[in-house]
Amino acid sequence: MDEHCYITYLNNKIITESNPFSCDHTDLDDFFTNDCEKYTNQLLGKSYCFCLNDDPKTIVAAFTVSNDSIKTNFFPKSNRNRLSKKIHHSKRMKSYPAVLIGRLGVNKDYSSSGLGSQIMNFIKAWFVDIANKTGCRFIVVDAYNNERTLKYYINNDFKFMFENEEEEMNYNDFNDKPHTRLMYFDLITIKN
User: Fold this and answer.
1) Which fold has domain 5-191?
2) What is the pTM for the complete model shown?
3) Dihedral over Cα of 191, 123, 100, 133: its sign
């Protein structure tokens, strides 16, 4: 990816000057086309995109990240123990710093090419890099609750925050099947 693409901030100028970007998902397309700059201006997150080196008007992927945390005191004891078991007992806290991937989409012309996993590896490396200006232990995501999306995150070593949908429904006080599933990746696994 590094040899074929470059990363830049995603904003209205990039969107309007680029070829149409679609990841074939209505919610994601709408966000990247219409809302990502408003989100950035409100200091809610930052959106980035990867463009082709040899065709800068082609956006191959886009993602949004923001600060977050995992508040373990809200989870059932078994989940809390599973999450913090790799953290030395003297460093265990009620809340752990995390980065939230709010949106991530790959251009539909590049889907199933492995690019999504390359983007995820970039994001993981970005937040353990020595130049990162803040500490975070986890990457969290509210993944769309569909087979393709969940499989993508599982294949990229994310774990479910809750053991099953019923547990997550109780946590979120939902009556119906959750639209998204909370998942996390422990960055310490790639730092060591």
Assistant:
1) Aminopeptidase (3.40.630)
2) 0.88
3) positive
